[in-house]
Amino acid sequence: MDEEDRPRVRGDAASLLGRESLDSYSRDELDLRIAQLEAEIARVAAHRDKAKAHMAAADALFGAKKS
Length: 67
Hints:
Shape: elongated
Strand content: under 5%
Helix content: 55-70%
Low-confidence stretches: none
Distance between the termini: 37 Å
Number of helices: 2
């Protein structure tokens, strides 16, 4: 099985970022990194909210799933 065919481990990119040393970054580079991470947080939150709205619409149409 090729590497491309294998499922990607979820959360691996965030884990790698959390282990990376920040010692070599300048203050400007750190500011840029923070802005990029904040943009990614907003993107993930928007996707989460979209999925929640989608599930609510499905529940309204088909009835809530009982656990």
